[in-house]
Structures are given as structure tokens and as C-alpha cells.
Design a protein that fits this description.
The protein has helices at residues 15-28, 47-58, 71-85, 100-111, 126-134, 154-160, 183-194, 220-223, 255-266, 274-285, 289-310, 347-356, 381-396, and strands at residues 34-35, 94-97, 117-122, 138-143, 165-171, 200-204, 231-236, 249-252, 325-329, 359-360, 372-376. With 399 residues, it is an alpha/beta fold. The strands form three sheets. A seven-stranded mixed beta sheet has the order 2-8-7-6-5-3-4, with helices on both faces. Helix 6 packs parallel to helix 7 (183-194). The longest helix has 22 residues, at 289-310. The protein is globular and about 60 Å long. Pyridoxal-5'-phosphate binds next to helix 4. Residues 39, 99-101, 125, 171, 175, 204, 206, 236, 238, 244, 249 line the site of pyridoxal-5'-phosphate.
């Protein structure tokens, strides 16, 4: 009998986490590596948020709270949805957890039975497929095309739905492509979903505030309110407020689902940190001006690096509409050889070669579409400029 449970075979480590770990190891061994793997803003958590957390600790907010969030936090989240998304939720529709990731995990664990299918547009954030498998479900990748901006087409969605489909994952802006669905594009998907009332929708809006070129942000329930009784919105403070380490995310959806999610969370971590909850209240209700300023900085970085990378022979990338990732096509490098004579057969070979050249990025296979690699531009312009130089030089050395 094996000591570890059989389910451990389904507890997988993502390409981005593996690349980040490898970066730490190589740096510890004295190598000069530019890490462009991880999806977290490089900005500091705003001072007023830190101050609120510190005050909360001194005021004794250091104890257990209700499992899925304090009344104050739920009120702040309800107000956020009303003000920013014109959506009317009540406290009973809100669930707070240790990051958007835990909220997603709770939702899948609470709803998936063995063999239930989750539709995941390819490419998507690796965690969707891994978590689905871990929760006994079946990830069903639905292809998208670069010429459609990697967005799910209504006919592809329609064709992928089966009687076992439980969820559709919709992430806009998208990790890893930066695709942003317009209100019209969401409406077209909603038309299909209306024909399949057994399919629920997860709208992962975690990058809501990182949308470029003045595009408006839209979420599916806003444009198709009739889907509200089968949609869970997932969001959080990690990306908008540079609070990845605080671990505070939230979901909004039908009360019975929210109650089931709280029961899952009660089996593991109980409430998210009381201090992080107080900090999140300050983030959501405090000044918002820096949010736009940080978005502008991401946009400036995007504008600087896309032309540099697109100019590298054999690589291909288009400007993302949001988030802080480039999904770079590397088909033009496959079949070539590294200076050591190693042939590049897959995008994993490409990212291994780039690591040798001092740039750490995860390969596309885990995101469901190859041959690509994902590059996070949530780092300084200086590091990005140097990374582009290294990638260009790496390409020129290929045989
Ligand atoms: C698409 C997407 N959704 C959700 C999350 C979860 O973020 P967190 O758990 O920090 O709230 C991430 C984090 O990288 C993400 O990329």
C-alpha cells in the first residue's frame, strides 16, 4: 500500500510554479536569471492598506471570523460590485477565501462529481485543468485561434457542450493571452449558454482592472443578467491592489452555491486571515487612483516590449488587450538547434534553452496551446529590456 493517496497523481505542479522554482535555484547557485514566470504585480501594496492591516491587528482583529468573510468585508465586496459592475448582490451571495484560487477550488470541489466536464478555452490558466482533475472532473479544452485573439467562439462553445458539461471557465482579461471579451462577444456566448441551461459559468475577473487602450471591462452577468442564477464571478485583491501575498479573493453567485463553498472551506482553512480581510476592506473602499496609474504602467511596458519581441526572427506575438502577459508563438524556433547542438522539438525545449540564456518563462503546453511560451511583464522596464535582448540573442545563436 502506498503511503501517499492515489489522488496525489492528480496534484500537479504548474509550469509557471516550476519555472519560478528553477529560477530561485539557479539564482541561489549564482546564475543571472531574469524571472518572467510569475503572475504578480511588482508594485508594493499601497501604504493605506498596510496601515489598515496594522490597525486591525492592534484593535484585536486577530481571531477567527465567519468562514467565508466578515460582514464588513462582504459589505465592501457588495459595494464594489454595485459601483464597478452595476450588479446587485447581497451578503449571502458573497464568499471570501484565501485568494481567488481557493474560491475556484471551493466551487469545483462543491459541484463536480466523477466524470463531470469543465470547458476550458485553450489556452487558459493552468490551474483550471489541474483543479478540475483534482476535484474528479474532466477538463475539456476548447480550442481558440490566434486570429480570433484567442477568444472562444460561440460555435466552438456550442459544439463542446455535452450532457456532462457542468462549468464553462471564462477568464477576461485572460491569463495567459491577455484577451479581453467585449460586451458583444460575451452576449454572443450568452446566446449559446441560454440554450444549455445545465451549464454553469465561472467568470474569472481577477484582471478586471488591467485592461488597455481604454477598453471597457465587461462581465457576462452584466450583459446577460438571465445567466445570473448559474454564474459565479471570481475576483480578488491580488492583482488590482498588488496584494498577492495577502491571499484574499472572493466569489459572487447564487446563495446555495455560496453556502456549499463555505462548507468546503470549513473542511480545510476556515476563514481567510482576519488581517487580510481588514486590509481588503481598506483596499476596496479606499482611494482607487493608483489602480489606473498602475494599469498605465503595465500598458507602457506592453507597448515597449511587444515590438522588440515581435521583431525576433521566428517568434510571434500580438499586443495583449489586458492582464500582464504575452503569449509568444515560437513555432519558428522548432526544428532549429541550440549552439550545443540540441534540437528544439517542443516549446518545453524552447523554454529550457531560454533558461540557459538567462530568461525564465513557462512553456505553453500547460496552458493548453503549443508551441508558445508565456512572458509576464509585471516586472521593471529595465529587466524587460534586458530579457528582450537575451531572447533576441538566443534566437540569433540557433543553428
Ligand atoms: C486567471 C487567474 N485567476 C485567478 C488567479 C488567482 O489569484 P489569487 O489566488 O491570488 O487571487 C490567478 C492567479 O494567477 C489567475 O491568473
Amino acid at each position: 500500500m502506498s503511503f501517499l493517496a492515489a489522488r496525489m497523481a492528480r496534484a500537479r505542479i504548474s509550469a509557471s510554479a516550476a519555472a519560478a522554482q528553477r529560477t530561485r535555484e539557479l539564482r541561489a547557485a549564482g546564475h543571472d536569471i531574469i524571472g518572467l514566470s510569475q503572475g504578480e504585480p511588482d508594485f508594493a501594496t499601497p501604504e493605506h492598506v498596510i496601515e489598515a492591516a496594522s490597525k486591525a491587528m492592534r484593535a484585536g482583529q486577530t481571531r477567527y471570523t465567519p468562514v467565508d468573510g466578515t460582514p464588513e468585508l462582504k459589505e465592501a465586496i457588495v459595494a464594489k460590485f454595485r459601483a464597478e459592475n452595476a450588479l446587485a448582490f447581497k451578503a449571502e451571495n458573497i464568499s471570501a477565501g484565501a485568494g481567488g484560487k481557493q474560491v475556484l477550488y471551493n466551487a469545483l470541489m462543491a459541484t463536480l462529481d466523477t466524470g463531470d466536464e469543465v470547458l476550458i478555452p485553450a489556452p487558459s490558466w493552468v490551474a483550471y485543468a489541474y483543479m478540475t482533475e483534482f476535484a474528479d472532473g474532466v477538463p475539456v479544452w476548447v480550442g481558440t485561434r490566434a486570429e480570433d485573439g484567442f477568444k472562444l467562439r460561440p460555435d466552438a462553445l456550442d459544439a463542446a457542450i455535452t450532457p456532462r458539461t457542468k462549468w464553462l471557465m471564462l477568464n477576461s482579461p485572460s491569463n495567459p493571452t491577455g484577451a479581453v471579451y467585449s460586451a458583444d462577444e460575451l452576449r454572443a456566448l450568452a446566446v449559446v449558454l441560454e440554450r444549455h441551461p445545465h451549464v454553469w459559468i465561472i467568470a474569472d475577473d481577477i484582471y478586471e482592472h488591467i485592461v488597455f487602450d481604454g477598453r471597457p471591462f465587461a462581465t457576462i452577468v452584466q450583459v446577460a443578467p438571465q445567466l445570473g442564477d448559474r454564474t459565479l464571478i471570481v475576483n480578488g485583491v491580488s492583482k488590482t491592489y498588488s496584494m498577492t501575498g495577502w491571499r484574499l479573493g472572493f466569489g459572487a453567485g447564487p446563495a446555495p452555491l455560496i453556502r456549499a463553498m463555505a462548507r468546503i472551506q470549513a473542511q480545510s482553512s476556515l476563514n481567510p486571515s482576519s488581517i487580510s480581510q481588514a486590509a481588503a476592506v481598506a483596499a476596496l473602499t479606499g482611494p482607487q487612483d493608483f489602480v489606473g496609474a498602475r494599469r498605465d504602467e503595465f500598458e507602457a511596458r506592453r507597448n515597449a516590449i511587444v515590438p522588440s519581441l515581435a521583431a525576433v526572427p521566428g517568434l510571434h506575438c500580438s499586443p495583449p488587450e489586458g492582464a500582464f502577459y504575452l503569449y509568444v508563438g515560437c513555432a519558428g524556433w522548432l526544428g532549429r538547434k541550440t549552439p550545443q547542438g540540441k534540437p528544439l522539438a517542443t516549446d518545453e525545449d524552447v523554454t529550457a534553452y531560454l533558461l540557459e540564456c538567462g530568461v525564465a518563462v513557462p512553456n505553453g503546453a500547460g496552458y493548453g496551446l503549443s508551441p508558445y511560451f508565456r512572458l509576464s511583464f509585471a516586472t521593471s522596464m529595465a529587466a524587460l529590456t534586458e530579457a528582450c535582448k537575451r531572447i533576441d540573442a538566443a534566437g540569433r545563436r540557433l543553428g
